[in-house]
Specification:
α2 links the parallel β2 (35-40) and β3. The chain contains ten helices and ten strands. By secondary structure, it is an alpha/beta fold. It has a single domain (6-244), classed as Spore Coat Polysaccharide Biosynthesis Protein SpsA, Chain A, CATH 3.90.550.10. Helices cover 35% and strands 18% of the residues. α1 (16-27) runs parallel beside α2 and α9 runs parallel beside α10.
């Protein structure tokens, strides 16, 4: 299949050091995306200044999409980013991710029609996270890539039958497929299975989930989650409903239905 053009978007909220590390890793990719969108859930001026600094010399278009801070509204800003994308294939990460140098290249190599890709993450411990954030450099990360093992075990380790392991910090899908499912459910306004609920609706629309290991490696900076799971029970109910009813679209998403 012809390689798709790619929009990468990342979500961020008031962690400029992590955002700087994330953008550095994107700018250093062996294969660049066609554009990068910073999806900002209401950060202050310090984050804006980081984006403007990188825009001066970024190797591809860098776009800042911001919404007013009205609490945790990650699904809303994700939808705004999806609407803003200009290209057919979307790679989605978080602003606390440091991408392996072949992250984009790997994702593109596994892009297929009628498929979305579920990536993985490698957690960075608290001490190393503090070091990276203090220096605002990520020198010293050792890649866990082992392409020989990955090729030998490709068929064993990949399957399309489950959305288990979906993480919004490392996934990829076609823009048209996101619109089929009406994007993220904006009624989900705290941390929970937001990304999994979206993935279930993709599957219910006939899009195969493809679990990816050893490629598209994402290093996740350490942070706490205090106060973010304020409405988890309701979010879990929406996720369970999507599973049980073969739900294909949400009513409050990319388009208001």
């Amino acid at each position: 299949m012809k390689k798709p053009q790619v929009s990468l978007f990342l979500t961020t909220y008031n962690w400029p050091e992590a955002l700087s590390l994330c953008l550095q890793s994107i700018a250093s990719q062996s294969l660049l995306p066609n554009e990068v969108i910073v999806a900002d859930d209401g950060s202050g001026d310090e984050t804006k200044a980081i984006v403007e600094k990188f825009q001066n010399n970024f190797p591809c278009p860098l776009i800042h999409v911001w919404q007013e801070d009205k609490g945790y509204r990650i699904n809303t800003i994700r939808n705004q980013a999806i609407k803003k994308t200009s290209f057919s294939y979307i790679i989605q990460i978080d602003g606390d991710i440091i991408c392996d140098k072949d992250f984009i290249k790997d994702h593109i190599s596994f892009a297929r029609k009628n498929r979305f890709v579920i990536g993985r993450r490698v957690n960075i411990n608290k001490a190393q996270t503090n070091h990276f954030c203090q220096t605002v450099k990520f020198d010293g990360i050792n890649s866990f890539r082992n392409k020989t093992i990955a090729i030998l075990h490709q068929q064993l380790l990949y399957n399309h039958k489950t959305v288990k392991g979906v993480r919004g910090c490392n996934m990829a899908y076609w823009r048209d497929d996101a619109f089929k499912a009406n994007g993220y459910d904006e009624n989900m306004t705290s941390k929970g299975p937001n990304d999994k609920e979206f993935a279930v609706r993709l599957v219910n629309n006939g899009i195969k989930a493809y679990n990816l290991k050893f490629y598209a490696i994402a290093y996740h900076l350490h942070h706490g989650e205090e106060g973010l799971r304020t409405n988890y029970k309701m979010l879990k109910q929406l996720y369970d409903e999507a599973l049980a009813t073969n739900k294909k679209v949400c009513s409050n998403g990319l388009k208001q239905l």
